[in-house]
């Protein structure tokens, strides 16, 4: 059968999107209860003023913020720090950003992968000081590489029960989640689904990074609630 | 045309060889790779178990014996990309290799074949590269099927597509069963691809990777969703 025939066949009226939406909402309902497995009481306490916001966001309905307008610019700047920006995005708050006339030089993936875990983390935090920039058109290759790293070497390492650097994996999950929010690319959303399922088995490791875990789960909660996948 | 089936087991190799051996002008070899470099005991136990599972075990045994006697059944003891294996492949002077082993092919192995190694990928290229492409196609409402193309050392990035067949997912209730059916099309489609390659002036379709995406292993949540979509369609259909 050729493509033309395949596409012209009467496709049975399916409820694909409706079924997907139902599955995402069921996961969101599950997350309302399960998030406490990822963050211990001590971990939550260590978040300080962030703790009550995270708790109410994850346990309640939570809200969603449409960040897609930010992706219409080549690059955006904001005055807030990486940490504050990530917090605002994760909790569906406001980020005071402005379009930039210039964007940073292309990031070499070869150079990125040569760096140690800590240097890579610092570089990503500096480049994506406003994390919404991960969805910029110019960052396609970087985002694809982060997705590949998560879904191939990082996943294999976790599945084999090997040691892993929770901070860098969680940072990648946060960035990939933000790209999913803006591009509505299901592959990026599913990386979060996959790691949500996988990290249930490696909770001791991720509990050492309560801030990144909390923000990742808030981003995930927003993704699950988005109606237009 | 000299063709080598690169298989993970004797049974898998003989299945494909059986489909193509009667094509006029084709000489077939079966190369059995030691996937995962198993110990001889484990390897031969698996081969024996696999043979015993076969409904036509005596026909299979007779055929394997016949291939072995003609030195057309070759058991590799080293990894496929080991220089000794590559040297052996080169000595066979094959035109085409047929992928039927769960191995990654490096440049040296690919170039041991005059035209290259064909892969029957259970997805539509160039749109769906990588893993779980059947699941992703169903989830995104795209046609399913198989693409036979010459591999390169990337993930489904080989530039020459020999043929593509759209095989609808309608009627299937579980994606696992749908995938098994698509995997099972490999021998028939390799035969069609070889027939096409033997035609004068064969034309390839391009595999423009910019028109597609690489897909990865799917979460259990989305696999369940795909099964539900298939069941829903089957019930409506």
Task: Set out the fold topology.
The complex is a heterodimer of chains A (229) and B (237).
Chain A lengths: L2 H6 L7 H23 L2 H6 L3 H10 L16 E3 L3 H9 L6 E3 L9 H6 L2 H11 L12 H20 L6 H18 L2 H14 L3 H4 L3 H16 L4
Antiparallel strand pairs in A: 1-2
Helix pairs in contact in A: 2-12, 5-12, 8-9, 8-10, 9-10, 9-12
Chain B lengths: L1 E6 L2 H11 L6 E6 L7 H14 L3 H13 L3 E3 L7 H10 L3 E5 L6 H4 L5 E6 L6 E3 L2 H7 L5 E6 L9 E7 L8 H9 L2 H12 L7 E2 L6 E3 L4 H17 L1
Helix pairs in contact in B: 1-8, 6-9
N- to C-terminal distance of chain A: 29 Å
CATH class of the largest domain in chain B: Alpha Beta
Largest interface (C-beta under 8 Å) = A-B, 31 and 30 residues
| CATH-level-4 superfamily name of the largest domain in chain B | Formyl transferase, N-terminal domain
- Secondary structural class of chain B: alpha/beta
Low-confidence stretches of chain A: 8-12
Q: Main beta sheet of chain B, described?
A: 8 strands, mixed
This entry's quaternary arrangement is heterodimer
Please, how many domains of chain B? 2
Largest sheet: spatial strand order of chain B: 3-2-1-4-5-7-8-9
Shape of chain A: globular
Count of domains of chain A? 1
Radius of gyration of chain A: 18 Å
> Which CATH architecture of the largest domain in chain B?
3-Layer(aba) Sandwich
In short:
Helices cover 62% and strands 3% of the residues of chain A. Chain A is mostly helical and 229 residues long. Helices cover 41% and strands 20% of the residues of chain B.
Task: Explain how this protein is built.
The complex is a heterodimer of chains A (229) and B (237). Chain A has one domain. In chain A, 62% of the residues lie in helices and 3% in strands. Chain A is built from twelve helices and two strands. Chain A has a two-stranded antiparallel sheet with strand order 1-2. Chain B has 237 residues and is of the alpha/beta class. Chain B has two domains: 114 residues; 119 residues, Formyl transferase, N-terminal domain (Rossmann fold, 3-Layer(aba) Sandwich). Chain B is 41% helix and 20% strand. Chain B is built from nine helices and ten strands. An eight-stranded mixed β-sheet of chain B has the order 3-2-1-4-5-7-8-9. In chain B, strands 6-10 form a two-stranded parallel ribbon. The termini of chain B are far apart. The mean pLDDT of chain B is 92.
């Amino acid at each position: 059968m050729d493509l033309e025939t395949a596409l012209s066949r009467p496709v049975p009226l399916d409820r694909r999107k409706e079924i997907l939406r139902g599955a995402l909402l069921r996961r969101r309902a599950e997350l309302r209860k399960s998030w406490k497995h990822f963050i211990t009481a001590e971990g939550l306490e260590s978040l300080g003023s962030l703790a009550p916001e995270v708790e109410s966001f994850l346990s309640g309905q939570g809200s969603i913020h449409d960040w897609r307008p930010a992706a219409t610019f080549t690059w955006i700047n904001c005055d807030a720090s990486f940490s504050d920006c990530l917090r605002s995005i994760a909790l569906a708050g406001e980020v005071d950003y402005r379009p930039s006339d210039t964007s940073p030089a292309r990031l070499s993936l070869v150079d990125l992968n040569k760096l140690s875990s800590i240097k890579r983390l610092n570089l990503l935090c500096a480049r994506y000081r406003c994390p919404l920039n991960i969805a910029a058109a110019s960052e396609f290759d970087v985002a694809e590489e982060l997705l590949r790293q998560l879904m191939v070497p990082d996943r294999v390492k976790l599945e084999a029960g090997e040691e892993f650097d929770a901070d860098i994996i969680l940072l990648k999950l946060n960035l990939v989640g933000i790209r999913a929010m803006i591009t509505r690319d299901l592959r990026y959303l599913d990386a979060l689904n996959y790691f949500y399922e996988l990290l249930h088995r490696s909770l001791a490791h991720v509990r050492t990074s309560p801030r990144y875990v909390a923000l990742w789960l808030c981003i995930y909660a927003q993704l699950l609630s988005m109606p237009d996948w | 045309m000299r063709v080598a089936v690169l298989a993970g087991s004797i049974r898998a190799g003989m299945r494909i060889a059986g489909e193509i051996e009667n094509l006029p002008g084709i000489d077939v070899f079966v190369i059995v790779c030691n996937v995962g470099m198993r110990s001889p005991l484990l390897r031969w136990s698996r081969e024996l178990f696999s043979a015993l599972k076969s409904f036509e075990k005596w026909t299979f045994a007779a055929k394997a014996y016949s291939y072995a006697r003609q030195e057309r059944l070759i058991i590799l003891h080293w990894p496929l990309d080991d220089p000794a294996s590559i040297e052996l492949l080169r000595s066979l002077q094959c035109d085409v290799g047929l992928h039927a082993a769960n191995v990654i092919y490096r440049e040296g192995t690919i170039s041991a074949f005059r035209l290259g190694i064909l892969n029957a990928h259970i997805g539509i290229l160039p749109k769906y590269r990588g893993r779980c492409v059947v699941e992703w196609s169903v989830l995104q409402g795209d046609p399913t099927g198989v693409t036979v193309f010459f591999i390169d050392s990337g993930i489904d990035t080989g530039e020459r597509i020999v043929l593509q067949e759209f095989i609808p997912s309608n009627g299937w209730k579980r994606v696992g069963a749908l995938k098994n059916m698509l995997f099972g099309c490999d021998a028939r489609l390799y035969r069609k691809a070889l027939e096409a390659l033997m035609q004068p002036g064969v034309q390839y379709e391009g595999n423009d990777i910019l028109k597609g995406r690489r897909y990865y292993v799917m979460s259990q949540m989305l696999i369940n969703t795909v099964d539900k979509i298939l069941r829903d369609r089957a019930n409506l259909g």
